[in-house]
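Minutes, project check-in
Item: structure for the 218-residue chain
Input as provided by the requester:
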Amino acid sequence: MRLLLVEDDPELGRRLSERLRGADFAVELATSRSEAEDWADLDRMAAIILDLGLPDGDGIDLLRQWRDARVNTPILILTARGSWQDKVEGLNAGADDFVVKPVRFEELLARLNALFRRQQGARSNAIEVGDLRLDPLSRLVEQGGKPLSLSRQEFRLLHLFMRRAGQVLSQADILDDLYELDSERELNTVEVLVGRLRRKIGRERITTLRGMGYRFER
């Protein structure tokens, strides 16, 4: 899943990006309001982590601008501002959660996953499709109740397929979800990865639609 991190502190942005990538997120970093407000594909982000104290404007104003433009992506405010007035203003402006710095990474990760659960209307972290069960927090996958061993990228691809089961995903959609924009992207990477996943979960689970992409069958 892709995240947009809006953070002007270069060291914090670097460290937090590394930790999030270690948790299997693809992270894009914007260091100013102007850079973030012009981001091309906000609707494709799983979530936005937004600092309020940006060098060229206030994060609250940016949040309102996004919501006025009908950007529905979950937004988590991560800021050093900790007064109750700031929290109320942020939530009223359209934030889905408000976290005060400094925060343990484990708590931040738990809050992100809570956002995803609310968005999906689920009470559990685990996603179940047919005989497959995937828990994004523990990174465990079971098929028919038996553990399934997957590489990191196979796990991320299966997570994407199960979240959007029954939908047609183009190769570009898959690349956008699995890789950051400035990383090397080759369409044949998707074909190879899909082939490896099919061998582990069954070829019939992933249908190829010529000229369109792939569909994960329910």
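Outcome recorded: The domain at 127-216 is CATH 1.10.10.10 (Arc Repressor Mutant, subunit A).
No further action items on this chain.
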